Amino acid sequence: MSNFNIEDHPHKRLNPLTGDWILVSPHRSKRPWQGQVEKTVSDERPSYDPTCYLCAGNERAGGKYNPQYKGTFVFTNDFSALLTDSPFGIVDEGNLFQAKSETGICKVICFSDDHSLTIPEMEVEDIRKVVDVWCDECAELASNEMINYVQIFENKGAIMGCSNPHPHGQIWSSSSVPTEPEKESKTQKEYFEKHGTTLLGDYLKAELLKKDRILVENEHFVALVPYWAVWPFETMIISKRAVQNITLLTDAERTSLADIYRKLTIKYDNLFEVSFAYSAGLHQAPTDGNDYPEWHLHMHFYPPLLRSASVKKFMVGYEMLATPQRDITAEQAAQRLRDLSDVHYKKQTNK
Ligand code: H2U
Ligand code: ZN
């Protein structure tokens, strides 16, 4: 029997941020890429859609009207999952029946007044305005005693359950730290206590030397396919400086975040020449007033597409019941994304 080779043989990889293992089966995708690129129907949209609940001046589902905004616009979610004034309570009927009340504030952020745009089609200076809104909202929410975690995210594409193509994201903030950041809090703390450096700082240093999984780098951020990626084209944006919280980014770092968000999503759109769907979001330290030197700001991107604009990966069967699994390796995915043009396909002159 030949020696174990991570490029050929089935193996498990550890996600040090969650402590979970994932299964990689590279032998199933050894063949060179042959999947045809199916073009989907054009997603051209008007700059203003009179039926869109996020366009300027239009009525929302709750009966409120959006102002005639330009650029970004933030409002409290009309159907907030968390409420500020819900009563406090605990259910403790032994170990098997536990419940706790939860409070919070949910907001929707329109990234642009232009209904036709998406992040990869926006200019850096306009995405910078989105980053500024994230920072301002985060600072305001963090100053609220009730709020101990601020989750900033973007759901893009109908395939991800996004209700509206108007460029927008959300912020859900809560009185307790949700499950995923809670796991990352624990692993980062353990790492920091042992090594005196942040887990992602050390990881990023090692990745920058290896270069296999790096996609885009600018002065302050790196976009890469993590070693432990589960989704076929899963990526992360990691800050070069170990920043605990988005509000601590410098002026130059905010612009760099806007720049890399754009560059990464251009590569995504260019992969199948389609507006690439994903769920993305920032992970940062809790906002309970404590210091979290172990926390290292980053952004996760979880896109569902696999082989073409219409072939989606399903996390079902073994993955739902046992362990998430992938065929195409993180390195192969990185190579494919890295090789794509930095110019959005709609703006390429030969198209
Ligand atoms: P998506 O980002 O997944 O499409 O969700 C859009 C959010 O917008 C969703 O949480 C809110 C929904 O509650 N919404 C409003 O607040 N007002 C509306 O008029 C419609 C949708
Ligand atoms: Zn719109």
Number of helices: 6
Percentage of helical residues?
Answer: 10-25%
CATH topology: HIT family, subunit A
Any ligands, ions or cofactors bound here, and which? 5,6-dihydrouridine-5'-monophosphate, zinc ion
The total beta strand count reads 14
User: What is the assigned CATH homologous superfamily?
Assistant: HIT-like
If you average the pLDDT, what whole number results?
A: 94
Q: Please state how the strands of the largest beta sheet are arranged side by side.
A: 3-6-8-7-12-13-11-10-9
CATH class: Alpha Beta
Principal-axis shape: globular
Count of discrete structural domains: 1
Distance between the termini: 49 Å
Structure description:
By secondary structure, the chain is α+β, with helices and mostly antiparallel strands. The protein has a single domain (14-343), classed as HIT family, subunit A. 24% of the residues lie in helices and 19% in strands. A 9-stranded antiparallel β-sheet has the order 3-6-8-7-12-13-11-10-9, with helices on both faces. Strand 4 and strand 5 form a beta hairpin. Helix 1 (124-142) packs across helix 4. The model has no long low-confidence stretch (mean pLDDT 94). 5,6-dihydrouridine-5'-monophosphate is lined by residues 53, 60-62, 77-79, 108, 155, 161-164, 168, 170.
